[in-house]
Amino acid sequence: MHNASPEDPITDPVTGFTYPDSWVRAAAGRDELSMVRDGLAVLTSSGTILKRGFTTGTTAAACCKAAILSTLRPVDSVEVVIPCGLTVTVPVAGAAGRAACRKYAGDYPSDATAGILFVAECTAKAIGPELIPGEGIGRFVRDTPRHFTGEPAISTPARDCIFAALEEALSETGLEGARVMLSIPDGARVGASTLNPKVGIGGGISILGTTGLVEPWDDHLSESVAERVRNAERAVLTTGRIGLRFSRLLFPDHEAVLAGAKLHEALPGADSDVILCGLPGLILRFLDPGILDGTGCMTVEELSSAPEFEQKMAEAFRKGKECYPGLRVVVIDRSGIILGDSG
User: Fold this and answer.
1) Which residues contact residue 123 at a Cβ distance below 8 angstroms, ignoring those fewer than 6 apart?
2) pLDDT digits (tens, 9 = 90+) for 21-67
3) Which positions ≥6 away from 320 have C-beta within 8 Å?
4) How far from each other are the two terminal CA atoms of the chain, in whole angstroms?
5) Given this model, what pLDDT does residue 56 score?
6) Strand partners, 129
7) Mean of pLDDT values over 115-135
């Protein structure tokens, strides 16, 4: 951990944003500044410090790693390398091949999965790690552009994080292989209250996390995002980690601002032209909340494979221009290929 002082510039290792000196001075003397420097918290323009939480993917990785480690010794915490590249320490209780971990939500009070319990149980296996998704992990109930019916709802970054943690545990213990059953006892109940049923996932929650961290949010952070947009000579707003990465590549002369789902709060801060760049899901539904009406599609991702997608996207661009005349919208896929540009 770093010992941050108010005189030192602080750059968020998750987003790459360097906090203005005035923000750092407003938080002078607070011990949590070290968490900001380490990427575990977010600094706002008022000097308020908001803690990031851990995603379901990070929690799952920690629980599975602890289950293997606990075959040799009791475990009370583990280190996990998360998708954004940071190494975090996650509290977890493990003994005799069984581990339990509760999801930490940080300062994100509306997180539906906050505090939910993950349980992992390890049994012997000849060679390599094996993950068995158990009770409480959602599964797709119909085919989608990227998933088949019955497939567990575990995103690629989360899966990679889990298997990296399993490999680390095998290396630390010297074991040749391990089979880990991961379950979430209350997952079915909690999953039913999320968006999962609407996107075709049933029986539990999803294991997700493009960065490994849950972004906090409150009124202070809304103000900070709007201020960043106002102060930037050129700004490109984006909704997630993939959008952030490709926005920087596509628009290197713009300051990339991660707004998440808070586009309504961020855009009024733009005094002139601003670019909105990212994956189609949040962006097109923001521009046209009724974009799925009459399509038979449950998600924008499903719509993106349909013949009418380009027409629907063009209509969303038109509606966006009506509300935000100076807004340019660039929609990309997960490989950074541009699907549409409102110009």
Assistant:
1) 97, 178, 179, 181
2) 988 999 988 889 999 999 999 988 888 899 999 999 999 999 999 99
3) 276, 287, 288, 327, 329, 342
4) 44
5) 97
6) 178
7) 96
Q: Given this model, what pLDDT does residue 268 score?
A: 65
Segment of 178-187, 253-262, 265-274 carrying the highest mean pLDDT: 178-187
Location of structure tokens 């918290």: 41
Residue ranges, comma separated, of all CATH 3.30.2110.10 domains in the chain are: 54-213
Per-residue tokens: 34? 């070290």
Looking at the DSSP assignment, which residues form a beta bridge with residue 178? 124, 129
pLDDT in tens, 142-174: 877 777 899 999 999 999 999 999 999 999 999
The b-or-e profile of 83-103 (16+ CB within 10 A means b, else e) is bbebebebebbbeebbbbbbb
Q: At the topology level of CATH, where does 54-213 sit?
A: CbiD-like (3.30.2110)
CA pair distance 44, 29, nearest whole angstrom: 15
Using a 10 angstrom Cβ sphere, with 0-12 exposed, 13-18 middle and 19 or more buried, the burial of residue 305 is exposed
- ∠ CA(278), CA(40), CA(233), 5° rounding? 45
Please, are residues 53 and 111 in contact by the beta-carbon 8 Å criterion?
yes
Q: What are the structure tokens assigned to 45, written together?
A: 């323009």
pLDDT at res. 249? 85
Q: Are residues 231 and 220 in contact, defined by beta-carbon separation less than 8 angstroms?
A: no
**CATH 3.40.50.10720 domain span(s) along the chain:** 218-341
- Given pLDDT bands bounded at 50, 70 and 90, which one contains residue 117? very high
Fold for the domain defined by 218-341: Rossmann fold (3.40.50)
